[in-house]
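Hi support team,

I've been running sequence recovery on a batch of backbones for a student project. Most finish fine, but this one hangs at about 90% for roughly twenty minutes before it completes. I'm not sure whether the input is malformed or the queue is just slow. I've pasted the structure tokens below so you can try to reproduce it. Let me know if you need the job ID as well.

Thanks,
M.K.
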């Protein structure tokens, strides 16, 4: 019974380590582009990645402002047999992806502030829409066929654009217990903004 309980506690604690989720941005520093693992950072971006490590800074005030400009192509694949295409290409852009960090180290204490896009941070434009938009239109073909009306084509003008940003504002205090161990206590306030626009129009079929 004791071993089972210990295993339960270990599994529960391990699962809690993934609290950020898959939508949490990890590129919170321009240094991330050069080194994609910043979890042991002892620089100013430790405000986000390793706040307890701020106690290893020299005494003084530290301030950092960095930005990343991100553009990429996102392809969504779908194998639904009645769709006109299996790929939907989106242009993703985030011209502003800032990270602002400040820390003040004095003795065994370090006080820190951070402001950055915790999640989202860009816009995506799909000039031919998304599979979920077009599936309903494509279903017109098998529906008409089921009613013995010969049909093999459809067309529609579909568009989608979405923007999402989750701003995170954090503050905390780090304390050095000894040369090996430091602790951190802090909080983060997240402000979410999402907007979407699009249309499905000019639906045509050839019965």
């Amino acid at each position: 019974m004791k071993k089972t309980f210990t295993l339960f506690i270990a599994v529960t604690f391990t699962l809690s380590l993934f609290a950020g989720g898959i939508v949490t941005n990890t590129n919170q520093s321009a240094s991330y582009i050069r080194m994609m693992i910043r979890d042991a950072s002892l620089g100013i971006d430790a405000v986000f990645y390793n706040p307890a490590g701020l106690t290893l800074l020299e005494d003084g005030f530290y301030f950092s402002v960095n930005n990343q400009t991100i553009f990429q192509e996102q392809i969504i694949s779908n194998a639904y047999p009645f769709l006109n295409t299996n790929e939907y290409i989106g242009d993703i852009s985030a011209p502003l992806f800032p990270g602002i960090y400040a820390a003040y180290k004095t003795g065994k204490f370090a006080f820190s502030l951070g402001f950055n896009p915790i999640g989202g941070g860009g816009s995506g434009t799909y000039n031919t829409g998304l599979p979920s938009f077009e599936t309903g239109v494509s279903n017109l073909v098998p529906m008409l066929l089921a009613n013995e009306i010969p049909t093999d084509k459809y067309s529609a003008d579909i568009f989608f654009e979405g923007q999402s940003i989750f701003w995170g504002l954090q503050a905390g205090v780090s304390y050095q217990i000894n040369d090996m161990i430091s602790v951190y206590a802090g909080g983060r306030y997240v402000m979410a903004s999402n907007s979407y626009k699009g249309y499905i129009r000019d639906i045509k079929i050839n019965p």
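--
Follow-up from support: It reproduced on our side and the slowdown came from queue contention, not your input. DSSP finds four helices and five strands in the chain. No action needed from you.
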